[in-house]
Records
---
Amino acid sequence: MRNGFVRAKFAAALLALAVLPGCAGLVVGAAATGGVAALQERGFAGTANDNGIALEINHLWLQRSEKMFAALQTQIYEGRVLVSGAVTDPDMRAEAIQLVWKAKGVREVLNEIEVTTEGGLSAYAKDTWSANELRTRLLFARGVNSINYSVEVVNGTVYMLGVAADQAEHDRALNIARNLANVRRVVSHVITRDDPRRTRPPPGEERRS
């Protein structure tokens, strides 16, 4: 069971080179995908950079432990990496975050890994349904540019990352997430278009005056 899941997740990670994460993943085809990437706040180059970071992190995790690789997931927008998932060992949680910082281009790491024994196939099925439902609702929501949002759900908690045009758009997206069935809380790391964190260089690459 685990080996099959690991293979499936690795294939999905590779697919990130051709299909954008989050709601934009609904768009199929290289030309269409490139067009959506160009329309995102981060642009085509930013999307490619984020996909490269994701692949490097997954490679580092898989090299270290299949268990780590299978348990965790990333959402990445403009070098800001949100890590979520559930592990039973706090040492694995700490090591996973250390490995994330090794990936080139990481500006910020948002550690949302749970140390818990909760979960299982039943919870995973509900989380998958909730995540897909939220992506669909954001896609058709008036006043929300869904291509700038990435969402995942872990044990009933929604994790959101991306860039909103303004606080009003962010609030609309939050309200949609909070009104989903089977969701117990919403954690948002979405920032607005004018947030200075968008131009912060990665550690060790600070701009010289």
Note: Confidence is low (pLDDT under 50) at residues 16-32.
---
Amino acid sequence: MKKLLALLLSAMMVVSCFAGCGEKPKETEAPESKKEESKAEGESKAEGESKAAESGAPAADGETIKIAYIGPLTGNYETYGRHQRQAIELAVEKVNAEGGINGAMVEVEWNDDKSDPNETTNMAYKVCDEEDVLTVFGPFTTTSALATVDIFKDAQIPVCSGSVSNADWSGLGDGRFFRGDATTQQMCTYFADFIIDEMGLTKVAMYYEQSDWGQGMYDEFVKAFTAKGGEVVYQDIFQIDQKDFNASLSKFKEKEDEYDLFFLVAHLNEASLAVNQMRKLGIDKTILSNNSLQDQVYLDNVGDNGEGQILLTYFGNEGNSDVFEQWKSDYEGKYNENIDSHAFNTTDLINVMFEAMKVSGNDREAFVKAMHEIQDYDGLNAKITMEENGDMTKPLSPFVIKDGQFAAWTKE
């Protein structure tokens, strides 16, 4: 009997369990206030999507748009990296204050590569693993950019550099590489035309940095200059971080009667030392240089030794657009530091990127397509068009250091 009772109790418990599992929970009705909130949210979202659809831009859905910066925030080119960072920060602050990109806030991830190609490579691998990054801003130098081509290309991530000037770089990225500065080919064509057509000179000595960028400038200039009947009668190279230039400059001094113009291709630190030492040696030839020297730091370093030096660049102390002057005032007021060509090029490029993002949202392929379609965009000082290969068309003009400032060059 005890066994029979135990079996009966067990059977009853099993039946009860199955009945419990099969029972549906009672639905609880939401309070009226919650219903109204949900209805309002739905109407708001629908309205936002409708407006986005009308403008052709994607709805933001409260997301952020992320840019990964890779550049020299410390190291030998820290000055340039600082100007790039400040220009990006100012532009991002402005666009976010105006409501972002279709309602999405722009966010920047800062990666310091010290302009060391090994560091740049590590940063590139890291960034390419981050799916929430829409595009990369950088790298800074040609050497770093060339070291990362295959990494970015394999990841199919858009790359926008405000400074890489290697003529071939943009064509290596399957249409996903863009730049905000003139290429070495464009620059050197401007240089050759200016020297021969405007200055009326045909004999040049050239002193350039031993790097991918320096070699590219030398090769492209010789090609463009000789094609117009000019001649580089003497040339030499110097090392990055070199401090003493006297041995090389002494040879330029010996050959001073053979050339009419001294073409210096250098960045801030080396150019400052080289110019001061060449003037001390008595080399009085007019110096022509690249726009990387358009910086107050350079003017302070060379002082009177820089008087008469000519640069081909994008702006001077006067004759600029109202948009440029407002940006200059905002930048210098915020950072208590003068603008330079890298801050200028960075601002033009980041604003073009924002314009493309209005169409693409967080879609990489749509961003690439939108970048290629930029035509006659109002830049800081000129209309901007992105060429088919990702290069940016912007005119260069000659400026001269006069009374410690960059003034418009005029033919005497």
Note: The CA atoms of residues 209 and 240 lie 7 Å apart.
